[in-house]
Design goal:
This protein is mostly helical. It has one domain: Orthogonal Bundle (Arc Repressor Mutant, subunit A). Helix content is 66%, strand content 11%. It contains seven helices and three strands; from the N terminus they run αααβααββαα. It has a three-stranded antiparallel β-sheet. Strand 2 and strand 3 form a beta hairpin.
Amino acid sequence: MSDVNEAAADDASGLTSTVVFRLGTLGTVVTDRFTRRIEELGLKPKHVGLMATLSLAAVASQQELAARMGVAPSLMVSLADYLEGLGAVKRVRDPQDRRRQVLTLTEKGQGLLDRCTSMARALDEEFVAGLTEEQRKALNEALRVLAKRADLP
């Protein structure tokens, strides 16, 4: 085990010391944990992402949502089909453009999103348990700035 620790110390100025590598690695760990928690609701992270995106905009076409989420339109159709089957989203033809499918979050969808939010908040608490209040605030502010620069909510 000391060989691993020594190798990590030797890489202090290498890849593992970069913000990108650390955020990516931590992101993978947190995503895996969140995925396991929301499985009990029959959801995957992209389902939750779609519901969260819909909660920020009252109505949006499938095409607009695919672009906002950075996913292929065919994947958006699949995500919407699944959530519609759960009763979490409602799909309606746009009366001004019959080719356009508009999605809205239903009351049931908002309830599922609320449960996912509670699960995420509990995971937040576990994840930052070793940080002081000052460190938590600094982390939240840094993440807010990085998200804004990346055009994320």
